[in-house]
Amino acid sequence: VLSASTPGLSSTRQLNGTCVSSVDMELFLHYSLIPSLFIILVLSFLQRREHRKQRDDTSHLLGNRFGIIIPLDFVGTFSNRWSYGIAFGATANKVMFLFSEGYQPLHIPQWAQAFVLLIGGMEVGLSHFPFFACLSSEFRLVSSILGFSYSLIWFAVTILYIIQCPHGQFLGKYETVMFYWPSLLCLAFLLGRFLHMFVKSLRVHLGWELQMEEKPFLEVHQAEHVKRLLRKAPLQETKKSWFQTRVYDWDPCFQFPSRMIGTTVLAFICLYLFIVIEFCMFMYVRDELDVFEGELENYIASMNQTGTLTPVILQVKELMNVSKGVWLVTILPASLTCVSYLFHILACYRKHMKRLWAGNKHFLPLKFHHPSSSKSVVAIARYSGWQIAYILWGYLIIHVVQSLCGLMIMYSLVLPVVHNQGLEMLQGLGIGTLTISIVLGLMTLQVWIATSFFLQPKMSTADKQKPLALNNRKAFHNFNYFLFFYNVLLGLGACLSRLLISCILGTWLIARIDRTIMQNGYEGADMGFSAWIGMLYVDHYHTNPVLVSFCNILITGHRERRLQQAIKYWCLNQSAGPRVSARSRTRWLLLQTLVNNPKLVMLRKSRPGHSSREFTQILLMGSES
């Protein structure tokens, strides 16, 4: 039946079933470690170690070469963010390969599966390490050549694999293209990026352009944030567009780190690949169900539709057809839900970081106000991987829940109309709606009676509600007694509604790693939320603009002092202006701070025998003198 109805599709699958490519992507992953290690060694040889300890062994022969190279700074990198994000996107196919647990190089027992996945993850990371290392290397000319060559190898091999077997066994034509075009796009971007780096570094090497300054310790947006805090009068707010008011408002004093951009890009591509894989599985299951449905039709035809199982078979066929349609339709809302979660998580990251910068921790559960330092360090390593896994599993769970809701709507509203049972459906719907309305009305009536008869009047006309003071106590006790037995039955429905709402919200928010689905007091059991909080604290402690600005002032002052000490006749430079003692300078800065912030006078420590006001007056008199 299937081959007769879809001959083109079956011939395509037979063709792809016999297609054998000369390129094995899994085998190429293993062999790619050779050029990857070569690039790592070259960059490590160029990287000089800042602190070298002299020892008696042969390690002194290396000099200060072979320094440690890093792929990227996961905490404080704000430049070149999209290049790192695209480099993460190039690893999407291999990440999905690991996610499906397809990495099985050896036959091992089940208990050692975690070690194999760990080895697989390290191999994937090592094979893609040159992308990140060449982007972040200080030796732009050499790293651009190495990065371009390595990206070209991956691009050429992927193109060759797609050309040899472009079709697949599930989606038919161009199935392989649908799987690999995101990685190809990312690799093409990296080729252009490394080519741009090569041209720019070559112009610098030839003296046609000036050498770029080294990476600043204080980023521009961090300095602007501190300036905004120190500004007395707030800036006049410009008129915001509809998108800024309703969806997202840009902040020029805030930038997402490279880790967040890379995680979001990789999550988008992995979500797309996961949806494609799920659709392939749906096509396979649908074909199997079509074969099974054909066998059921043959059975009904052989029994002349008079068999005892005919009604059951018809219901099973209807269930299969409805399930296939509902599952296909709910792909779009489930995917849009997860895509909106990715954008919303970025918005929540900015909101939470700004609250932590302001010293506000009230949005966090009480037990997370002082998290463990070691767990926070581990959390920032876990966050990116866990965020992607939460999005993928969250999509699948949300898809299942939406499909179940679609089945309920079909069987309660649509199918009765199709089977000419619309009046019965409307009658049952009306009775159910009336029952729920009466229950809710009685609950509202209890609140109205309590407000009108059992509470004392307002103490002031400005009060929003009556005080919590009982009135008409005898009537109140009779009211409680007679409603006691009814509320027992009402509590059963409230309990079931609580369970239903918890299940719906829990499954709907399962992909939100920034929000816990645990009840108050059990947030520590949510490992994803704990990783989110630990990551926030690490970023807060290491990228706080005020702290970074303060450290930048210290570093700049230290460099200036060392520069002055290096000048042989620095006293000649100081003779142009009057000498100022350190004590007078400190008092002057303290005076300026107290004048700009009068409330700090009451908070200052006072000398023994003097109040804070008297000490401030002494300070002012001393500065004037």
Automatic annotation (TrEMBL):
<feature type="transmembrane region" description="Helical">
    <location>
        <begin position="434"/>
        <end position="455"/>
    </location>
</feature>
<feature type="transmembrane region" description="Helical">
    <location>
        <begin position="178"/>
        <end position="195"/>
    </location>
</feature>
<dbReference type="Pfam" id="PF14752">
    <property type="entry name" value="RBP_receptor"/>
</dbReference>
<feature type="transmembrane region" description="Helical">
    <location>
        <begin position="326"/>
        <end position="349"/>
    </location>
</feature>
<feature type="transmembrane region" description="Helical">
    <location>
        <begin position="28"/>
        <end position="46"/>
    </location>
</feature>
<protein>
    <recommendedName>
        <fullName>Stimulated by retinoic acid gene 6 protein-like</fullName>
    </recommendedName>
</protein>
<feature type="transmembrane region" description="Helical">
    <location>
        <begin position="82"/>
        <end position="99"/>
    </location>
</feature>
<dbReference type="GO" id="GO:0038023">
    <property type="term" value="F:signaling receptor activity"/>
</dbReference>
<keyword id="KW-1003">Cell membrane</keyword>
<feature type="transmembrane region" description="Helical">
    <location>
        <begin position="390"/>
        <end position="414"/>
    </location>
</feature>
<dbReference type="GO" id="GO:0005886">
    <property type="term" value="C:plasma membrane"/>
</dbReference>
<keyword id="KW-0812">Transmembrane</keyword>
<dbReference type="GO" id="GO:0034632">
    <property type="term" value="F:retinol transmembrane transporter activity"/>
</dbReference>
<feature type="transmembrane region" description="Helical">
    <location>
        <begin position="145"/>
        <end position="163"/>
    </location>
</feature>
<dbReference type="GO" id="GO:0071939">
    <property type="term" value="P:vitamin A import into cell"/>
</dbReference>
<keyword id="KW-0472">Membrane</keyword>
<keyword id="KW-0675">Receptor</keyword>
<feature type="transmembrane region" description="Helical">
    <location>
        <begin position="483"/>
        <end position="510"/>
    </location>
</feature>
<dbReference type="GO" id="GO:0051649">
    <property type="term" value="P:establishment of localization in cell"/>
</dbReference>
<keyword id="KW-1133">Transmembrane helix</keyword>
<feature type="transmembrane region" description="Helical">
    <location>
        <begin position="265"/>
        <end position="285"/>
    </location>
</feature>
<keyword id="KW-0813">Transport</keyword>
<dbReference type="InterPro" id="IPR026612">
    <property type="entry name" value="STRA6-like"/>
</dbReference>
<feature type="transmembrane region" description="Helical">
    <location>
        <begin position="111"/>
        <end position="133"/>
    </location>
</feature>
